[in-house]
Design brief:
The chain is α/β, with parallel strands linked by helices. The protein has helices spanning 17-28, 53-56, 75-91, 103-111, 121-134, 136-146, 148-153, 159-172, 176-184, 201-217, 220-231, 243-252, 256-279, 298-306; strands at 5-10, 30-34, 61-62, 95-99, 191-197, 286-288. Helix 11 crosses helix 12.
């Protein structure tokens, strides 16, 4: 384990992670490191709620806008780049604060990745053919029987992840969810103080709706139209919540009012899956409301942690 101290601020989308991380960075002379699998892509700004220069208030933010949308960034590559950012920040005498909601990326950084078998191409092809034949719901039900932990974290429509989890189980006989849980109990890669920020359900629902309205008012449709014209739908981030629904609005003619409702529902569903992820991660031990992060006793806790 590295003796480097870092602060991790995680939690569901739209709870105010970045704003509170900025305030914390200003107080403790820190810089931010993003952990968001959409904000890493240049041009995917409004729909990912990428922080603006005004919102950052002069605080430096690493690992946003770091690659082209056609580039694929996985958890291992993210951890490698985040390691470099942490080393750079620490070398300049500042505190690294990692902030974001992509659970697997945060786990890769703080705990490392589970050692998994290589892809078995024939096995994967068979499972994908079964998916095409019987449908995602049936395959997800099969996953729930053999690997309930993974099933709670993976959406029934997520073909790639459902197939991969079933593939690992057939290869090893060990549920992927259990392997990841046991791995999370191992030694951490950093000395981290980790927070999961969250809001009461009704307050969070209202925040999500307000955010979606603000995205649309800021030109979200125009952003996606421009990205489609430039990348032709090839960018992986078009599958992200919000972007997927806006693409359907622009290309399939789904009415904007219906699209708005779909984005809100999809965002709330994604937040539910994020909460499930954090609830099974023992390293994310401090669960608090966002405002409590900037009040006592947490400020004292952070000060003691940094001594």
């Amino acid at each position: 384990m590295s003796g480097q101290r870092i602060v991790v601020i995680a939690g569901p989308t739209a709870v105010g992670k970045t704003a509170h991380a900025v305030a914390l960075a200003q107080r403790f002379d820190a810089e931010l490191i993003g952990a968001d699998s959409v904000q890493v892509y240049r041009g995917f700004d409004i729909g990912s709620s990428k922080p603006t220069a005004a919102e950052l208030q002069g605080v430096r933010h690493h690992l946003i806008d770091m690659c082209e949308p056609t580039e694929l960034i996985d958890a291992a590559e993210y951890a490698r780049r985040a390691d470099a950012a942490i080393a750079d920040i620490a070398a300049r005498g500042k505190l690294p604060i990692v902030v974001g909601g992509t659970g697997l990326w945060l786990r890769a950084l703080t705990r490392g990745l589970v050692a998994l078998p290589q892809v078995d191409r024939p096995l994967r092809a068979r499972l994908e053919a079964e998916w095409d034949a019987v449908g995602g719901a049936v395959m997800h039900e099969r996953l729930a029987r053999v690997d309930p932990l993974s099933a709670t974290r993976i959406h029934p429509n997520d073909k790639l992840r459902v197939v991969r989890a079933l593939e690992v189980f057939e290869q090893t006989g060990v549920p992927l969810g259990e392997a990841r849980r046991d791995h999370a109990l191992g030694l951490p890669r950093y000395h981290a103080l980790s927070y999961v920020l969250d809001l009461p359900s009704e307050e969070h629902r209202a925040r999500v709706a307000e955010r979606v309205d603000a995205m649309l008012a800021s030109g979200f449709a125009e952003e996606v139209r421009g990205l489609l014209a430039r990348y032709g739908g090839q960018a992986r981030a078009f599958g992200a919540v919000g972007y997927r629904q806006m693409v359907e609005h622009l290309e399939a003619g789904v009415p904007l009012e219906e699209t708005t409702q779909q984005i809100v529902r999809a965002t709330l569903l994604y937040a539910r899956r994020q909460r499930t992820w954090w609830s099974t991660d023992p390293s994310m031990h401090k669960r608090i409301g966002p405002s409590a992060l900037l009040e006592e006793p947490e400020l004292s806790t952070l000060a003691d942690f940094l001594r």
